[in-house]
Each structure stands twice: as structure tokens, then as C-alpha cells.
Amino acid sequence: MLRALCFSLILIPAMALSQDDRAPVEPPMTFERLSQIVLALDPDVVVRGPALEFTLDGIPVVVIADPGADRMRAMVPIASADGLTPDDLMRMMQANFDSALDARYAVAHGRLWGVFLHPLSPLEKDQFLSGLVQTITVARTYGNAYTGGAAIFGGGDSNGIYQDLLDALRKKGQEL
């Protein structure tokens, strides 16, 4: 029954729209199309094989595409991984569950990164742009809010952590 309900929820909106009401379908994402989008964001983009290196709002970004594997990855360096404590790692894993949204904290090659991963061909322009913003935001909020944006998915530990912070601030406010 649940399967039929899910199927009908997916099909009904699509069937309810006439062909004229549907949004235009974007062409599949390719490395060339991804490069054109990035070039519009930063005319100084550097292309190194499958990698695009550019700057957004003062933050260095690397996008790597692998058309053969149909994957792409946008990455923002955050810090050296050498000084990460177990508490840091736990907090990042909590954020990956509920507040980092589509971006993630990751460690590779001795460095802490903010990353956005997605299959390449179905990636839409707005999804890519949203992923870039979230990736930059996880980098900027590392060490404090650990968030990819304004929303928290919920069901994890971040709400409680934020609530504890709010309670502590309220308590301080009462003491002043």
C-alpha cells in the first residue's frame, strides 16, 4: 500500500501538468556545461584536466568531474586535519547527519574539506549552485554552527546542541 501511495504521489503531479505547464528540462550536465557555469561565476577559473579551480566570495573552490563514473565533487579546503580532536570529528559527523544539508565535512590528504558530491549527468544548474553555497557555508561555519545553510534537517543531535547554546545564552542574558 505504501509503495502504491508513493508511486501515485510521484505520478499525479506530473500527470496533472500539461506539456505547456512543465518547466523546460535541462540538458544533461557535462564537464563542458559545468565549465561554462563556473566560468560565468569566475572568469579567472583555471582548468587542470578534469578539475576547475576558482574562487567564490573569497573562498577557493575545486570542482572535479568524472564523466566516465558520472560523478562530480565540489571541494573547499577548511583546515589541516592534524589538529582535529575526537570531539571535532564527532561534531562534524553530527552536522553531516542533520545540519550540513547537501554538503559534507570530509578528511583527505591531511586536510579537512567541505564537499558536495552528486551524479554528474542529472545535476541541474540550480542544484550545483546550491551545493556550492552549502559547501562554502560549511567551511565558514566550521568551529561554530557547522551548517550548510539556514535549515536543519532534524532528527539528529544538532538541534539539541543549538538548544543548549540558546539556553546558555538566555541564562547569561538573565544574569546581566
Describe the structure.
- Strands 1-2-3-4-6-5 form a six-stranded antiparallel beta sheet.
- The protein has one domain (25-175): Yope Regulator, Chain: A.
- The N and C termini lie far apart (57 Å).
- A hairpin with a 4-residue loop joins strand 3 (59-66) and strand 4 (71-80).
- It is α+β, with helices and mostly antiparallel strands and 176 residues long.
- It is built from five helices and six strands.
- Mean pLDDT is 80; it is low at 1-18 and 172-176.
- It has helices spanning 2-16, 31-41, 86-98, 125-140, 158-175, and strands spanning 46-48, 51-56, 59-66, 71-80, 103-108, 111-119.
Supply the CATH class: Alpha Beta
Class of secondary structure makeup: alpha+beta
CATH fold-level topology: Yope Regulator, Chain: A
Strand order of the largest sheet: 1-2-3-4-6-5
Q: Beta-strand percentage?
A: 15-25%
What series of H and E elements makes up the topology? HHEEEEHEEHH
Uncertain spans, ≥5 residues at pLDDT below 50? 1-18, 172-176
Helix content: 40-55%
What is the count of structural domains?
Answer: 1
Mean pLDDT: 80
Please report the distance between the alpha carbons of the first and last residues: 57 Å
- State the CATH architecture: 2-Layer Sandwich
Count the helices. How many?
5
From the spread of the alpha carbons, the general shape counts as globular
Tell me how many strands there are: 6
Profile the largest sheet. Answer: 6 strands, antiparallel
Rg (CA only) = 20 Å
Care to give the gist of this entry?
This protein has 176 residues and is an alpha+beta fold. It has helices at residues 2-16, 31-41, 86-98, 125-140, 158-175; strands at 46-48, 51-56, 59-66, 71-80, 103-108, 111-119. The longest helix has 18 residues, at 158-175.
